[in-house]
């Protein structure tokens, strides 16, 4: 027993292992969730490659719809985590996030501007959102460099 108020630290390896197990479990669970009802045995047979004993529609649902969706969700989540960690480490601020720093608002403004200037072109709205978001980050990083330069004097 430790003292009252003493915090125990979880080992980093245990923390990472637990997170990876949770991600894998959620990806596997997502293979069973959907409007087309399938049992555990059917999904498992498709994943193991026993396609002869599984109807073609079930193979299609698992391999063409659910599995790509689950893998893409895990990859997008990892990319967002990496982007947030990078932003926090570059700015040396553990509370930094795109919405707090204004990047989300700038991207929303760019999307609205793209919709107004180029009606009917969805790609133009996405491109304007990306460019204004990146511009706000460039301004943020530039102001951070200027601030740290003034503080070092």
Question: Layout of SSEs?
Answer:
Blueprint: H1 12-30, H2 40-48, H3 56-91, H4 98-101, H5 103-117, H6 122-151
Describe the model:
The chain is mainly alpha-helical and 153 residues long. Helices cover 74% and strands 0% of the residues. The protein is built from six helices and no strands. The protein has helices at 12-30, 40-48, 56-91, 98-101, 103-117, 122-151. Helix 1 runs antiparallel to helix 3 (56-91), helix 2 crosses helix 3 (56-91) and helix 5 (103-117) packs antiparallel against helix 6. The chain is flat and about 70 Å long. 12% of the residues are buried. The model has no long low-confidence stretch (mean pLDDT 87).
Properties at a glance:
153 residues; mainly alpha; 6 helices; 0% strand
Q: On the 0-100 scale, what is the average pLDDT?
A: 87
Gyration radius (Cα, Å) is 23 Å
Secondary structure: helix percent: over 70%
Number of separate helices: 6
What's the helix-strand series? Answer: HHHHHH
Helix and strand content put the structural class at mainly alpha
- Taking the alpha carbons of the first and last residues, their distance comes to 48 Å
Strand fraction: under 5%
Beta strands, count: 0
Low-confidence stretches: none
Largest sheet: none
- Principal-axis shape: flat
């Amino acid at each position: 027993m430790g003292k009252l108020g003493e915090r125990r630290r979880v080992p980093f390896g245990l923390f990472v292992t637990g997170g990876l197990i949770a991600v894998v479990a959620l990806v596997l669970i997502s293979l069973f969730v959907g409007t087309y009802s399938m049992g555990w045995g059917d999904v498992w047979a498709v994943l193991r490659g026993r396609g002869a004993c599984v109807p073609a529609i079930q193979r299609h649902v698992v391999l063409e719809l659910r599995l790509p969706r689950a893998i893409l969700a895990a990859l997008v989540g990892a990319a967002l985590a990496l982007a947030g960690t990078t932003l926090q480490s570059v700015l040396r601020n553990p509370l930094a996030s795109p919405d707090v720093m204004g990047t989300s608002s700038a991207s929303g403004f760019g999307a609205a501007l793209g919709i107004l200037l180029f009606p009917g072109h969805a790609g133009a709205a996405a491109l304007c959102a990306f460019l204004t978001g990146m511009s706000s980050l460039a301004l943020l990083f530039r102001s951070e460099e200027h601030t740290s330069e003034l503080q070092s004097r």
